[in-house]
Amino acid sequence: MRKEYDFSKSRKNPYAKLLKKQITIRLEEDVIDYFKKLAGKTGIPYQNLINLYLKDCAASGRKLTFKWAS
Questions:
Q1: For 11-62, what is each residue's pLDDT tens digit?
Q2: Into how many domains does the chain fold?
Q3: What DSSP designation does 18 have?
């Protein structure tokens, strides 16, 4: 390895906008279990499945419908 490197001719990562941001989210256990079972069937990690589902909801403009218990 060199002692110093010259980064003066470097350029920004063009894929930096595609990187994911880590957050903390609280999900109910049954929701996590559902995605973990689905992950076992598909071979896709459950966190990626949750991300794909939420991404699909956002892309299609899906709205949540619910009623508060009275």
A1: 988 888 788 888 999 999 999 999 999 999 999 999 999 999 999 999 999 9
A2: 1
A3: G
